[in-house]
Design goal:
Layout lengths: L1 H48 L10 H31 L11
Length: 101
Amino acid sequence: MAMGITLLVISVLSIAIWVIIEIKRLKHKLFAIFLIGLLLFAYFGSLVAFKGEDIDYKTIPGLIDATKIYFSWLSFIFNNMKTITAGAVQMDWESNETIKS
């Protein structure tokens, strides 16, 4: 009986240690996925924001213009998201009583 309990305790501790290590690895993986997603968003966002723009990336004024264009595009996106969210919150989401089942 004591041998079975000892084996159970050792198994539970081993599983707990393994889970703790996996959770730490998961945090690092999630952070890496977040960074990759952020880089992809920045890349594709810059493609959309700079489409049709003639920007000189080799000079400081050109980089300043690119930064202004990108952040104005980004603020435009967030303002649109704010407007859509506010509109969705103000909608009447109750069921339609005029439609018969």
